[in-house]
Amino acid sequence: MLLSFTDKGLYCAAGDFYIDPWRPVNKAVITHAHSDHARWGHKYYLCHHYTKPLLQARLGDNYYESIGWNEPIYINGVKVSLHPAGHIIGSSQIRLEHGGEVWVVSGDYKTEDDGISGAFEVVPCHTFITESTFGLPIYNWKKQAGIYEDIRQWVTHNAEQFNTSVIIGYSLGKAQRILTAVAPLEKPVYVHGAVWNMHQAILSAGIALPQVHRVTPETTKAELKGSIVIAPSSAEGSPWIRRFSPYNVAVCSGWMQVRGNVRRHNADAGFVLSDHADWNGLLGTIQATGAERVYVTHGFQSALSRYLNEKGIWSAEVKTEYGGEEENAESGKAVNTAEE
Amino acid sequence: MKAFAALVHTLGTSTGTNEKLDALANYFVTADDRDKVWVIALFSGRRPKRIISSSWLSQWCIDITGLPAWLFEESYHTVGDLAETIALLLPPPVMENQEGHTLAGYLEQLILLEKQTDTIKRQFITSCWRQMQREEIFVFNKLLTGGFRIGVSQKTMVNALAKKINLSASVIAHRISGNWNPATTSFEQLLSEHNTQIDYSKPYPFYLAHQLDKTPEQLGAPEEWQAEWKWDGIRGQIIKRNNELFVWSRGEELMTEKFPEYQVLQALLPDGVVLDGEIIPAAQNMPLPFALLQTRIGRKNVTKKNLEETPIAFFAYDLLEYQYEDCREQPLETRRKHLEQLVQGINHPVLQLSAVIAFNSWPQLTAIREEARQRVAEGLMLKRKSSAYQVGRKVGDWWKWKIDPLTIDAVMIYAQKGHGRRSNLYTDYTFAVKDGDKLVSFTKAYSGLTDKEFAQVDAFVKNNSIEKFGPVRTVKPQLVFEIAFEGIAASNRHKSGVALRFPRISRWRTDKTPDDINTLEDLKKMLELYGK
Predict the structure, then answer these.
(1) Are residues B455 and A270, on separate chains, in Cβ contact within 8 Å?
(2) Which of B389, B489, B524, B526 is 20–30 Å from B20 (CA)?
(3) SS3 state of residue A44
């Protein structure tokens, strides 16, 4: 086994390094900058160039090294390369090759190209470790263009009534997609501090984004009238959000596929905008990798794994500590909308 | 149908009552009259008869999608709603039918299908699925499976109508009540005063009380108030008109057939009378626990054995119509006087007066209230003597003043995902008490925690499940909760031998461990005290 599943995370014994470990280790290869995958306390971090400034912003000073996609390096004789995962900016699948064995760790991934995160690349392998956040057949997404159009219509409708449109999405990844969606409306966009920090970090990676304004105590009511506000889910139902009154709230998340979730959020609208592969995306990718063995991590792992076995692809579930709830932990609100 | 699907979507996502009201009001302006009649029917609990079972719908969806049955089940337990699960799983329409039927068109088709074979039903339903978008499939499935609960009360619907037609809400509420068939009633007929066919069965909208949220002293002088026991039965109206007897439940269900005991009143009551009261099991004028009634209400046919084991009486507390005159505007005092004369004149054990409790001061009444549980009552009712009989839940003149619930500390042992706004969250729990070293399950409870607490318990369940039996997870017995309930009765359906009335979680006892919970012995003592 090129990788083993330990209580600290996925471990490559041949190369003596971990992938997205959840306990402090000496050497960590990081798929992407979400907090459940990129944790604090490792002595060495290897990641994509775009991920590095995000880790610096979130984890502070550490020993970081970054490489580009499809630029293999060797760690103790194990060939390691990163490949676009399409999940968020800098997100990468990790390909390991050693003694003729090829393993790929998907991290989190999305098969539709969102125009920001890099187009997902199918990486052929013997063993594929896939996420399963939306691993049930009820999760099938509409095309991004259509969802963006729905969001713009909603914002326009609110603005006609002079209401502010508050759009909820986690600060790294979703917030930038929402920003791209509303940019053609040419309305002022205000953002929560958490979104602002990520925005600055992404700019520093050399990636261009539409202009935003940070919401501060000095921001006046007049400025906010009919504007767009992007905030993380911790802002939902908080005193912070009340300053935008009158406003309408929308939540952008794959979980919005199910009506009960929209109702639980008490949101005026739920847009099914996800940064993860849907059911067909997962199945299509697994098939395309040509993998003989598929390990299924965080999400609906038992359902997806059982389904693959029944379809003749060897599969097993793996327990990990991914799929945390970074931005909801404090509000305790919807367990399910975290950094999906 | 598209317009109706859009309405359901708006109603489902609107957060404020005003938004819902506006959406409905707009619908009542734009929709055609046939559809309006059906919307009134659906939102007042008048669904057409269910023509197909859920298991057939599931099977057809499985056939179309080619998914394994277990994966369909898994999806259903995550979504928590069958109609929605099917809508999410079916492929997008091959060839969308732009026209489609109207809402009324579909519903009338479904009524025609009622007597057809399953093959013909299948043909119709699956061909509808193939032509519809997801939102429409969802609504269509809801019509098929019933339980059209989408966050709109009948009151909101009535208020929306009142905004658009020139009638007051209470008049509309009365006109749309009773026994009418949406398939054969026009919008005009339904709401016009000169209804050509007089519906003698029509009940009045019930006047409902709020829970007392202050001290009784704040209500003012005790002599202005009438106190009664708050009975634990089914609120109902008994109507005698045109020499016929009708029994309605508060859910506006015609229940005449379910209570043959009341038939004697057909001969005894004068014509043109409407009584408001409580349907309760009783022996020798004394009420019996509600659990007994439950053994009867679920049944299609009431057997002789039921009648003997669970004799039912009607505890009358108000008179709404007398000699065909609507007397709801008269003060309670006057209505009560007439009611007493009427009931005493009839003098039959099946028709009881709900006694008025004599009291001179609030402290005295507070003491009397403590006897409620012994009297198989839930507490007291306080009614202003000068009050009219109003429509719906209105604050001010009628109050229910319930006694504190019974409580017991228990540990959670099973969890299951919830429905509706709790979809994909473990929110349905089963609780156990100790019996020596063993744990014995005794109740389920679904409510009482905040969203935040539910999220925490959900996380606990996900990290501490021991086994999975279908949708149910057995959980490490660690979390202790205080369960509150209104009553307790013996039951052979539960391992513990008891059944609770209205169990809910009253507190999460983070300060207690499973060693501190109550025992089966404790439950049995409560049964001895309150359940006989």
Answers:
(1) no
(2) B389
(3) strand
Is A251 in CB contact (< 8 Å) with chain B?
A: no
What's the CA gap between B171 and A235, in Å, rounded?
Answer: 44
Mapped onto helix, strand or coil, the DSSP state of residue B485 is strand
The residue of chain B with its CA nearest to that of A331 is B452
Query: What's the confidence (pLDDT) of residue B147?
Result: 66
- On whether the B207-402 domain is CATH 2.40.128.20, my answer is no
B121, pLDDT greater than 90: yes
| CB–CB contact A336 B425 (8 Å) | yes
Inter-chain CB proximity B79 and A332 less than 8 Å: no
| Nearest by CB: A303 against B13, B71, B422 | B71
pLDDT at site B482:
95
Say yes or no: do domains B2-145 and B406-530 share a fold: no
Residues B226-283: tens digit of each pLDDT: 999 999 889 999 999 999 999 988 876 778 888 889 999 999 999 999 999 999 988 8
Q: Rounded to the nearest 10 degrees, how much is the dihedral formed by the CA atoms of B359, B360, B361, B366?
A: -10
Chain A CB contacts of B71 under 8 Å are: 136-137, 303, 306-307
Tokens of B130: 């193939």
Query: Which of B8, B10, B11, B13 to mutate to test binding with chain A, by most A CBs within 10 Å of its CB?
Result: B13
A138, A263, A302 ranked by CB distance to B85: nearest: A138
Separate counts of helices (H) and strands (E) for chain A? 9, 19
Pick the CATH number of A144-271 from 3.40.50.10890, 3.30.1330.10, 3.90.550.10, 3.40.1110.10: 3.40.50.10890
Which of B8, B19, B64, B75 should one mutate to test binding to chain A, selecting the residue with the greatest count of A CBs within 10 A? B75
Q: What are the residue numbers of the active site of B? A: 230
The Cα B301–Cα B253 span in angstroms is 16
CATH of domain A4-139+275-322: 3.60.15.10
Residue-level pLDDT at A338: 43
User: Which are the contacts of B282, defined by CB distance < 8 A and separation ≥ 6?
Assistant: B288, B311, B312, B313, B315, B352
| Helix, strand, coil share (%) of chain B residues, nearest 5 | 40, 25, 35
Q: How many helices (H) and strands (E) does chain B have?
A: 19, 23
B71 closest CB neighbour out of A137, A262, A269: A137
C-alpha distances out from residue A254 to A110, A216, A273, B49, B282, Å: 12, 30, 5, 36, 54
Residue A169 and residue A334 in contact, taking contact as beta carbons nearer than 8 Å: no
Report CA-CA distances (Å) from A319 to B330, B467, B489: 69, 15, 44
Read off φ and ψ for residue A149, nearest 5 degrees: -65, -45
The proportion of chain B whose per-residue pLDDT surpasses 70, expressed as a percent, equals: 96
Structure tokens at B301: 């046919």
Of B15, B85, B420, the CB nearest to A268: B15
pLDDT tops 70 at residue B319: yes
Which residues of A fall within a CB distance of 8 Å from B88?
137-140, 257-258
pLDDT for B446: 84
Helix (H) or strand (E) holding B38: helix B33-43
CATH of domain B2-145: 1.10.3260.10
pLDDT value of position B252: 67
Structural domain boundaries in chain B: 2-145, 207-402, 406-530
In the structure encoding, which two tokens stand for residue B446, read together? 């679904």
- Closest chain A C-alpha to B85 CA, distance in angstroms: 7
Q: In chain A, where are the structural domains located? A: 4-139+275-322, 144-271
Give domain B406-530's CATH superfamily.
Answer: Nucleic acid-binding proteins (2.40.50.140)
Residue type, B269: L
